Amino acid sequence: MVPAFPSQLVHRPTALELMDACTALLEQRLQERLEQPRPRPLGLATGRTMEPLYASLVERLRAWPAPQMQALQSNWLSFNLDEYVGLPCGDEASYRHYMNVHLGRPLGLGEAQLRLPDGVAGDSTAAAAAYGAALARSGGVGVQLLGLGSNGHVGFNEPPCKADVSCRVVQLSAATRQQNAGLFGGDPQQVPPLAITLGVAEILQAQEIHLVVTGAAKASVLQRLLHEPPSEALPASWLQQHPRVWIWADAAALG
Ligand code: GLP
Question: Which among 11, 87, 116, 183 is placed 20 to 30 Å from 125, CA to CA?
Answer without folding.
Answer: 183
